[in-house]
Write a structure and sequence with these properties.
Keywords: Mitochondrion, Ribonucleoprotein, Ribosomal protein, Transit peptide. This protein is of the alpha+beta class and 115 residues long. It contains 4 helices and 4 strands. It is 30% helix and 16% strand. β2 and β3 form a beta hairpin.
Length: 115
């Protein structure tokens, strides 16, 4: 079927752009040589990851110790839980939104404005 499409494109009355001829020839070579050649191509082969993916820190509202080896650390105004034996126990507290930490005075809280 591909041969029919290729033949009809190449033998059409309008001349094809030179780039299209190269693309059609490349596609034909892939189908002619089979999929086996493309899989063994070094650019398409999979690579073995060098680093093992690991979980990061869990962000929680109130960090808690999960085992005897867990301990608390305060860094950058956050409470962290670190664990020597189980890396999956790592936690850190959420950062408060600065709008929730404003100190509101009576002038900003009153129903009527004084002026």
């Amino acid at each position: 079927m591909f041969a029919l499409v290729r033949r009809s494109l190449l033998n059409s009355s309008k001349p094809l752009h030179p780039l299209y001829k190269n693309v059609i020839a490349n596609v034909h070579s892939v189908f002619a040589n089979g999929v086996k050649r493309t899989i063994t191509d070094p650019f398409l082969s999979s690579t073995v990851p060098t680093l093992i993916p690991s979980c990061g820190m869990k962000v929680v509202g109130k960090p808690r110790k999960r085992c005897e080896d867990c301990y608390f650390v305060r860094r950058q105004n956050r409470l962290h839980v670190m664990c020597k034996t189980h890396g999956r126990h790592k936690q850190m507290s959420m950062v408060k939104d600065p709008r929730n930490t404003w100190i509101l005075t009576h002038a900003t809280m009153s129903k009527k404005r004084p002026w």
